[in-house]
Amino acid sequence: MSLDLPATLAKSTGCRDTPVLKERGQREVFCGLTGIIWLHRKMQDAFFLVVGSRTCAHLLQAAAGVMIFAEPRFGTAILEEKDLAGLADANAELDREVQRLLSRRPDIKQLFLVGSCPSEVIKLDLARAAERLSGLHSPHVRVYNYSGSGIETTFTQGEDACLAAMVPTLASTTARELLVVGALPDVVEDQCLALLSAMGIGPVRMLPARRSGDLPAVGANTVFALVQPFLNDTHAALTRRGATHIAAPFPFGEAGTTAWLRAVATEFGVDDATFDRVTAAPRARALKAIATQSAELVGKSVFFFPDSQLEIPLARFLTRECGMTAIEIGTPYLHDAIHGPDLDLIAKGPTISEGQDVEKQLDRQHAANPDLTVCGLGLANPLEAKGHTTKWAIELVFTPVHFYEQAGDLAGLFSRPLRRKALLQAGANA
User: What range(s) does the Nitrogenase/oxidoreductase component domain occupy (predicted)?
Assistant: First the structure.
């Protein structure tokens, strides 16, 4: 081993009760290790140590685009042939590499041992290793473990697994506090906190926190609101700690952001006059930005392949706020408590599918011939070659798209491929 919108639609008119097409065939998935790329930027005193192969190291290096003079907060403890063959004590080697890392990087306060396909294949018990190393290096460093393996998971589940691993270790509290759950770019997080503060809602805690000293406490009086729709395990872990979930549409677009804020405001007794005063100006800006960016989307159809687990709230945004028609909304996993409020706001009509049988879904997509297809990287190029216009789902995770000030940018991510196609066709016909 070596180190290297208000919910105005009645349920009867929404899609929450639509029969779900459940598929359990071949899937196109992307590795859960990818979540490290945004998590290591968010958590400023954390380090993510992937216990895996050189392929894992190359994936992270390529995905992050780390420059040679950068000092990233992630690395790979590479499993060599002797590790895979059982000729070396992998735990002893891991302990040695962690010691080397921490002696070189005293700024690390949280260390995540991230499982990969190779470490899981050889049954390396990283949970026990994390417990042992936490005892060795406490109180200066807390060591966690989660799996980023791509064998069974989609790529956004890396964040879910990471946050769920942290929840049992959070301190207890009896205070009534709001916990906002899900990694946001710092500028978007600041916008969210500013809106909540202007309404008089506080204290507000974030998970993940930017630094370990700001980690939240959790208890029976904690209420939490999710800002990412793929946090199924984190939702369950917080519920086990006694916290209460505020069910709401996700803050994508003007209507989604307003509905999310309204749900939080109602929970904390904010009056309508205060709510309207705080949200009026950013709502107006968001509506104007969406209208500018979505002209190419009105009347167009969209087909979602399951990839990021953002599909349901994004479909709600595109159909309710951008004038599109959804043909099929595929998602890797469907969680009623998390996705239900957005499903309530999607008019009946589209097929709702969970899981994937990729060949069958490709047949449905070809038959429907949508104006825009949202899919993973592995499908985008083949579909483009067949003349379909696509949007990479992964770009929607790496780009700031939450809350009012990003609403126009979100619409632009979908209108840009259609605009590009129209320009290319105009050029070809000239």
Answer: 31-378
**The pairing of beta strand 74-78 with beta strand 2-3:** antiparallel
What backbone phi and psi angles, to 5 degrees, belong to 278?
A: -75, -35
CA distance 337 to 250: 12
pLDDT tens, residue by residue, 209-227: 999 999 999 999 999 999 9
pLDDT digits (tens, 9 = 90+) for 45-67: 999 999 988 888 888 877 777 65
pLDDT digits (tens, 9 = 90+) for 120-149: 877 888 999 999 999 999 899 999 999 988
* 31 annotated among ligand-binding-site residues: yes
Structural domains in the chain, sorted by start: 9-27+293-429 (3.40.50.1980), 32-153 (3.40.50.1980), 177-286 (3.40.50.1980)
Question: Does the annotation place 192 within a ligand binding site?
Answer: no
pLDDT tens-digit map of 231-282: 999 999 999 999 999 999 999 999 999 999 999 999 999 999 999 999 999 9
Say whether 375 counts as a known binding-site residue.
Answer: no
